[in-house]
């Protein structure tokens, strides 16, 4: 027998620690290769730590809610055979071989489903990232996956379950839901959902989700840290609306991407930041850190109502096509809980679209340690005075408000106001005859 130390893996350049949210295995239980052992959370991204070996879990070193540093041993697994290296290359090579084998297995029928596989089905079944990736690559629908009788803990579908189903898929009908030999406990509710508790008078006490607590603390800390000031400006985006309406079908035909207003606006923001580098800073004690890269955070709403901020790295270096692909990809994977920890790190400036909820304007809270955040309001048709060489007249224009919150400790009103004035000039000068 040999003992294998399961360590918290490296999850990105800037991720140093994670919180244990749930142990999926108990001491004494057997574990398969690649089977998820524990669920962890880094700020806003939830993920799992799979086992690199096959064996029996003999020791758990950290309790639920403990904060663990990358590289620390979190559990010990007893394996058959000789000595097993501690999270060494050999087990990782075996994992790589199995992943290659999985890829070969699914290569024969590589039709990707249009809708990403969710982490949790409507019936409450949880699916690991490996199972979801195999299902999506193979073209297995959520209904098929939900119908599989899992052999893992609490009826979870394991890698072997889905690979067996793939092998028999061509000859056998889709499996019907069956009762497991032993009465399985009710599926666990997702960590992010709170269970309401009835109290006197018909009221309810609802426990805040882990993500909700993190966001609440982050917002309070930001308000207590930064001296928030807001500037507002109205922008005429009529030319942009006309241009998008004219080219969006051709854009989709050529690039395979839907062209929304978001990448157009994000590209304009990135170019404006380049003209005002002192907006792209952070305050560290009494020192100002001037950021080299322009990394745009893009606030996205999740199905449970919480927000997450994926980051577009080096946004000023992207053309409109590149920006559109980045925006669409990050937004889709954010909604499917498929972002990697690195993809929500290192933002230097944040943009939030309050207009997607119909709001005309908002006063967003700065995303620390940044010093500014921009809120995009809804685009509306409004009557406006139009100046011409022949005189002024009233016409219908497409307009939007943008709200700029900035830290008055380091960004004064002149800089904060000039920033959005330049953004306005950039967007209003849009050429309706340009290509994309």
Automatic annotation (TrEMBL):
PROSITE patterns: BIOTINYL_LIPOYL, LIPOYL, PSBD. It comes from the Bacteria. Its EC number is 2.3.1.-. Residues 126-166 form the Peripheral subunit-binding (PSBD) domain. Residues 173-195 are annotated as: Disordered. It is an enzyme of class 2 (transferase). CDD domains: lipoyl_domain (cd06849). Keywords: Acyltransferase, Lipoyl, Transferase. It holds the Pfam family 2-oxoacid_dh. Residues 3-78 form the Lipoyl-binding domain. One of its GO terms (molecular function) is acyltransferase activity. Coiled coil: none annotated. Its cofactor is (R)-lipoate. Belongs to the 2-oxoacid dehydrogenase family. Forms a 24-polypeptide structural core with octahedral symmetry. This is Dihydrolipoamide acetyltransferase component of pyruvate dehydrogenase complex.
């Amino acid at each position: 027998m040999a003992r294998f130390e399961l360590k918290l893996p490296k999850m990105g350049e800037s991720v140093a620690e994670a919180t244990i949210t749930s142990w999926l295995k108990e001491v004494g239980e057997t574990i398969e290769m690649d089977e998820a052992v524990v669920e962890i959370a880094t700020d806003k991204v939830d993920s799992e730590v799979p086992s690199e070996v096959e064996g029996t879990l003999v020791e758990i070193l950290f309790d639920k809610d403990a904060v663990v540093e990358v590289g620390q041993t979190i559990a010990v697994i007893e394996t058959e055979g000789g000595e097993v290296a501690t999270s060494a290359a050999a087990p990782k090579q075996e994992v790589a071989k199995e992943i290659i084998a999985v890829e070969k297995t699914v290569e024969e029928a590589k039709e990707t489903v249009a809708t990403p596989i969710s982490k949790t089905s409507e019936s409450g079944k949880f699916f690991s990232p490996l199972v979801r990736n195999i299902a999506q690559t193979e073209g297995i629908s959520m209904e098929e996956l939900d119908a599989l009788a899992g052999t893992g803990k609490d009826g979870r579908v394991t890698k072997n379950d889905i690979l067996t189903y793939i092998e028999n898929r061509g000859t056998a009908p889709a499996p019907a839901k069956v009762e497991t030999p032993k009465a399985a406990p009710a599926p666990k509710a997702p960590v992010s959902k709170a269970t309401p508790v009835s109290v006197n008078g018909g009221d309810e006490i609802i426990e805040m989700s882990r993500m909700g607590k993190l966001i609440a603390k982050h917002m309070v800390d930001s308000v207590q840290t930064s001296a928030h000031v807001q500037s507002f400006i109205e922008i005429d985006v009529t030319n942009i609306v006309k241009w998008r309406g004219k080219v969006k079908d051709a854009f989709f035909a050529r690039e395979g991407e839907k062209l929304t207003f978001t990448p157009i606006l994000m590209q304009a923001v990135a170019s404006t930041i380049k003209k005002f580098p002192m907006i792209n800073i952070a305050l560290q004690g009494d020192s100002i850190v001037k950021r080299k890269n322009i990394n745009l955070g893009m606030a996205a709403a999740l199905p449970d109502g919480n927000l997450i901020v994926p980051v577009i790295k080096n946004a000023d270096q992207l053309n409109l096509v590149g920006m559109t692909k980045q925006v669409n990809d990050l937004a889709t994977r954010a909604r499917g809980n498929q972002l990697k920890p690195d993809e929500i790190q290192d933002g230097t400036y944040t943009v939030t679209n309050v207009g997607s909820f119909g709001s005309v304007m908002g006063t967003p809270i700065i995303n620390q340690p940044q010093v500014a955040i921009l809120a995009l309001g809804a685009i509306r048709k409004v009557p406006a005075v139009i100046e011409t060489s022949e005189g002024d007249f009233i016409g219908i224009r497409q307009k939007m408000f943008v709200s700029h919150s900035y830290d008055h400790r380091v960004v004064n009103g002149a800089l904060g106001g000039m920033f959005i004035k330049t953004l306005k000039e950039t967007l209003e000068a849009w050429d309706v005859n340009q290509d994309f």
